[in-house]
Amino acid sequence: MAQLWVRDGMDPEAPDAVVVAVVVDPAGTAEERAVAALFSYAYDGDGTFLLVRTDGWAERRVDGDVLTVEIVVHRAVLDALGIDGAGFPERPLVRPDAVRLLRVSTPVVGGRYDRALDVTAVLSAPAGAAAEQIVADVHSGEAWPLILAPPPPTAG
After folding, report:
1. What is the pTM for the complete model shown?
2. What value does the mean pLDDT take over residues 15-30?
3. Under 8 Å CB-to-CB from 55, ≥6 apart: which residues?
4. DSSP H or E run through 75
């Protein structure tokens, strides 16, 4: 099952930066596998993969003390990846013409989320992997995060 983290120490160049990160199992649920497939669709960055905001993004909202992140792409991305869009009937609030791949939530307390970067990181790790090992793999460059921007502006 996908995890949602709000933590510092993720970025070795900015260890105090608070990062919102979604961790998916590439062999997990259909939703997790679809999100993991985005790594192959994204562009290589400097130690990261970058998904162009016109292709997909992360929508975040806080209700009370619960943070919810939705990972969203346009249907053309699913077509390019060979993923049947029929398995993803949910539409995002911001752009109902897009497809929601995954929704994950976690409690947030203590104001940490208020300091979080605007972008959302996605990490791919097998189920049961220890958080410390996942972060260590990112720091060593063995694993690159996929970086998702906030939603594009709405028309109007």
Report:
1. 0.94
2. 96
3. 41, 73, 74, 76, 77
4. helix 75-81
